[in-house]
TrEMBL record:
Keyword Oxidoreductase among record annotations: yes
Pfam families (UniProt xref): ABM (PF03992)
Organism from which the protein derives: Nonomuraea cypriaca
Protein name: Antibiotic biosynthesis monooxygenase
Record carries keyword DNA-binding: no
Length: 105
């Protein structure tokens, strides 16, 4: 990533119904190509919080307009429909990455 080509990042916090965590993880992985196959997507990650039933989904995009295009697409609606039964709540934050620094490991 270069500074003149900022990354648009989306961070979702999802609360998953108790007892549905493993099925949610499998389903997220199975339907993930709906996101990563979009030409403007730079990658996505699923992280499990130490807080019970909480997950974070982070995805990086070339820019906000291309993300919003995806967000309103039929592909995204289908993706959301498959994950919705697992959710008991959640939030979405969006941001522009200012700097990125890689580690040595």
């Amino acid at each position: 990533m270069s500074q003149d080509q900022p990354v648009f990042r989306v961070l979702l916090r999802m609360q998953i119904h108790a007892g549905m965590e493993e099925e949610f993880e499998r389903t997220w992985y199975q339907v993930g190509k709906a996101v990563t196959d979009h030409p403007a997507n730079l990658g996505q990650w699923l992280a499990k919080s130490q807080e019970e039933g909480v997950y974070f989904i982070m995805s990086d995009w070339t820019d906000e307009p291309r993300f919003r295009e995806f967000e309103h697409s039929d592909g995204h609606l289908e993706h959301r429909t498959k994950l919705h039964p697992f959710r008991s709540g959640g939030t979405m934050d969006t941001m522009n990455v200012v700097y990125a620094m890689g580690g040595k490991g």
